[in-house]
Amino acid sequence: MVKITKVTVIKNYRLEVAFDDGVCGVADLSDLVGKGVFTLWRDPHVFEQVQIGSFGELVWLDKIDLCPDSLYLKVTGKKPEDVFPTLRCEPIYA
User: Fold this and answer.
1) Would you say 53 and 44 are in contact if contact means Cβ atoms under 8 Å apart?
2) Do residues 83 and 23 lie in contact, with contact meaning Cβ atoms separated by under 8 Å?
């Protein structure tokens, strides 16, 4: 599991994130705004209060947290099975 080491807020609900394996990139979270718990982000000032949690995740006001793995996939464009090889399904023949 990767951890986020740095986060910078960019306009339009985007974040520049750096991970402990050296990967850096931009995560566009604008598609989440206003949905479910993300209604808090309708206030841009709340979104700007992002912090890195103790497990390398992103947190907002102890009400929202985002897993670093999901952000890693978003930043790199990789599929879960690319990052977690055990998720690959191997055909089983009887």
Assistant:
1) no
2) no
Give the span between the Cα atoms of 45 and 74, in whole angstroms. 23
Alpha-carbon distance of 24 to 38, in angstroms, equals 24
Query: Angle 40-45-48 (CA atoms, 0-180°, nearest 5)?
Result: 95
73/18 Cα distance (integer angstroms): 13
State the pTM of this model: 0.83
β-sheet bridge partners, residue 4 = 19
Which domains does the chain possess? 4-82 (3.30.2020.10)
Q: Look up residue 9 and give its amino acid.
A: V
pLDDT tens digits along 74-86: 999 988 787 777 7
